[in-house]
Structure formats: C-alpha cells, structure tokens
Amino acid sequence: MHGLKTFFKMGVFFLVLSGCTTNLATGEKQFTAFMPAEQEAKIGAENHQAILDEFGYYEGATIQAYVNNIGQKIAKHTERDDVKYTFTVVDSPVVNAFAVPGGYIYISRGLMALANDEAELASVIGHEIGHITARHSAQQQSQGVLANLGLAALSIATDAPAALGQAASLGADLYLKSYSRKHEHQADELGIRYLYRAGYNPSASAEFLEQLEAEGNLNALIEGKNANAVPEYFSTHPITTDRIDRTIQLAANYPLQSTDDKKVTYFSTIDGIVYGESPRNGYVRGQDFIHTELGFKFSFPEGYKISNLPTQVVGQSSNSVMVFDGAKKEAGQSIQDYLINVWLKNRSDYAVPETITVNGMPAVTTSFSALASGKTRTTRIIAIAFDNTQVYRFAIQTANPPPATILTDLKRATYSFKKLSAAEKAQYKPKRIKVFAAKAGDTVASLAARIPFDDHKEQRFRVLNGLSARDTIQPNKLYKTIVE
Ligand SMILES: [Zn+2]
C-alpha cells in the first residue's frame, strides 16, 4: 500500500516534470517543465533576500528606479510574458551582473560606474534578460548555482578548513557558476534583439564588451600577474575571443534606426555613485582592513595580498592564508561555547581552547592539524567576542609546524584587531564618481593627475571613460572622474 502510494506520487511527479516545451526566445526544445514559471518565481523570491544580504542593496532611490525603468522597458520586448522582472543595483564594487530564476536581475554599482551611456547598461540588462527568456538560469539552477551560494555561506559559518579551501579559489565563481559558451552566445543574440526592439543602438553590446575587456586589462596591469584580475562579470559570463566580433556581426544584421544612447541622462544618474569600497564592504588601505559600519580595524602582516570578499576578508602569502569573518551568537553565550559548539562542531581533534583577551575583548584560541592538498597544515583559530552578540574569527593556516617568524606576524595581526572610535570612523569616506564637462586645455594627463589613486592614473581615467590610447579630451563633453 505504502509502495503503491509512493509509486502513484512519483507517477504524477513524472507527468508534471517531463514535459518538453519549445522555448519561444530560442526556438529550441527544452525540458524546462521541470521548473514551471511559478517555481522559478518562488526560487527567485527565496534567494532575493539572501543575495541582498550577501552583496548589499545599493542605497539610492533614483538609481534603483532608473535601472528598474530601463529593465521594465526592455522586458516588454521579450517572448516570455510569464515572468515578473525585478531589477536591483547591488552595493558591490566589482563589475558584475547576474540573473536568477524568476526574473531577478542584479547589476553591481561597479558596472554602473564603468558604463558610459544608457545603451551600454541596457545591453547588459538585455543580455541578462536573454539568460532568463532562454531559461539558462533555470537550467543552471539545476546544476547548483544557488546551492553554491548557500554552501559558501554555510561552510564559512561552520567549518574553517572549508573556508580556507575556498579562499584558494577566490572570485565570483565562489557564488555563481559561469554560463557555457553556447548560453553566452544565445544571451548575446537575444540581448541585442531586445536592445534593438527597445530603440537602442544594438552595437552598444559590443561597445560594452570592449569596455569590459579594457577593464580586465587594466586590472591585470594593476594586479600584476594575478589570475583573478578579470572583472567578475567574465567569471559568470565568460568572454571568448570571438564574442565581441560576434556581437558586432549580430548588431549589423539589424536595419539602421534613429537611436539615442542617453549619455547625458546616464551621467547625471550615476553622478555621485560610490566607487570602489563602501562602508558596507569595509576598506582595504595598505595592509589595514577597516570596517566603519561594523566598527573595527586590523592589520594584515606585511607582504600579504588582501582580498575583500562579500563574507570574508582573506590575506594570502606564499606559505600561509589568513581568513577573517564574523557571525552572530546568542546573547549570553560565551565565546568559548560558540567556538566549540558552532565553529568547531564537526571537529574533535583540536587543542584545549585557551582563553585570551584581544584589546579588551574576551577571546579564545585553539589549533588543529589536518591534511590539505596532501600536506599536513596547521590551522589556528582565534575567536573574539566583539559585543554581546557579534563574534569575529581569524582562521590562519600555515605549514606544520609553523615557522616562528610567521607565527609572530600572525599573532601581531590578530592582536591588532580593535574597536574604532567615532573620530576614527569619520576618517574613512568612500570614493565617488563625479561627472564634469571638460574645459579647453584639459588633457587626459591633467585630468588623470587628480584622481585619488597612486598608480596607473592615466590608464584608470581612460578605462573609466571608455577612451582608447589615442583618444583626446574634447572641450564641453562630459567625462567621469573619481573623487574622495
Ligand atoms: Zn551571460
């Protein structure tokens, strides 16, 4: 009886889930009935808050409304009318855009700062909508995109070695898997179609891909040979050598129409947008990490390369990695109890925890050794009770036994963790984009000299403004700069 019931349920399940439909956008047969539109919407809604928690909602009613208006305008020209679209600017400095099932599309403020007119932004939105109309995100979802997002958060919260393992593969793919080349091409094709239908110049798509490529080259120049230098956008939407050429050809297939790139509107909308790290992200200044919103700072040892990720800060040297993150505990729960029963709940091989004090804050430390990539590595954990409910943790992985000099450096780093006074908090302000009209006599060199960076000023200014190496400044034209 029980078996029959199960069989019956499975039968219904099979009927519902095995339908093969023709996708109106791509014309392809798809086994997408396994995720009906209502289920896509449910998944999107469930994950919307998690994504906002992770990346942050960019506080700016004008810019949010602007992006949503453009998104809704483009969405009217698609083949799917069963999707309710939601467009959100996230408070992330990295250049990225992504779509999740149910019509949820996210654009980073880093991407907003990089684009040079409304048509370029529209091309990105069109591309993301293309992933949704072609149901790529639905297909990708089944491969575990959002499972990945959840997994990353979970392992950081509960298991330090897993977090350390992930630190080795820094980048957006920690959160979102990339689309296949075929899906990228399809989304480009659909995006250009929607761009044209919405009255924009379809060549804006190739223009913005070139802008992204220039940003990638600039990052490579700034970061040296760092393999993570490519904009995060390319981690989720891989660029292939033929992608730009292909978008140029696709755009050329459309008849000429009178278009407006809306550069003036775009520039006035992004004037003042936060550039680089925000109070929500915390600031990396030299070897210091400062978080004014959470109210603390600490310093990594000299020579550590620092990565400020959404849920952790990672410092890496040639022979050790230091991961910093935080969590909420129950009021009244001791830091020792939290360390043992939450952060170390899956382990029993750690040394007896030792109670310490870090700049007046109760803390506890322990260590354990474990195999990592075939070598025994030692992990030291320092858990600090910041206040009644907020806890922070340093997890430091080194060779076993750890060299004495490294231990001294790392100890100094953890003991540098301290609370910020109101006056100290006030010292740190985010950089912002400022729009201005060039005057006669302005040159790239003279304008770039004013941006608040120490290196590659001219290249930074050119990439920000989409200028090639030969382009010169035109008086009275609008440009972007960065101010502090
Ligand atoms: Zn894509």
In DSSP terms, counting alpha (H) and pi (I) runs of 4 or more, how many helices? 18
What class would the helix/strand composition place it in? alpha+beta
> Please, what is the oligomeric state?
single chain
Task: Kindly estimate the percentage of residues that lie in beta strands according to DSSP.
Answer: 15-25%
Strand order within the widest sheet?
10-11-12-16-15-14-13
Strand runs, count: 19
Radius of gyration over all CA atoms, rounded = 25 Å
Reported for the largest beta sheet, the result is: 7 strands, antiparallel
Q: Describe it for me?
A:
The chain is α+β, with helices and mostly antiparallel strands and 484 residues long. It has three domains: 240 residues, no CATH class; 144 residues, Mog1/PsbP, alpha/beta/alpha sandwich (Protein Transport Mog1p, Chain A); 46 residues. It is 42% helix and 21% strand. The protein contains 18 helices and 19 strands. The strands form five sheets. The chain has a seven-stranded antiparallel β-sheet, with helices on both faces. Strands 7-8-9-17 form a four-stranded antiparallel β-sheet. It has a three-stranded mixed β-sheet with strand order 3-5-4, with helices on both faces. Helix 5 crosses helix 10, helix 10 packs antiparallel against helix 12 and helix 10 packs antiparallel against helix 18. The relative contact order is 0.10. The N terminus is likely disordered. The site of zinc ion has 6 residues, from helix 5 and helix 9.
Summarize the structure.
By secondary structure, the chain is of the alpha+beta class. It has helices at 2-17, 37-55, 61-75, 109-114, 118-133, 136-142, 145-158, 160-167, 181-197, 204-223, 232-236, 241-252, 263-270, 335-343, 404-415, 422-426, 444-448, 457-464, and strands spanning 21-22, 29-30, 86-90, 97-100, 104-108, 274-275, 283-285, 288-291, 296-299, 305-308, 313-316, 320-328, 354-358, 361-372, 375-385, 390-399, 418-419, 431-437, 478-483. Strand 4 (97-100) and strand 5 (104-108) form a beta hairpin.
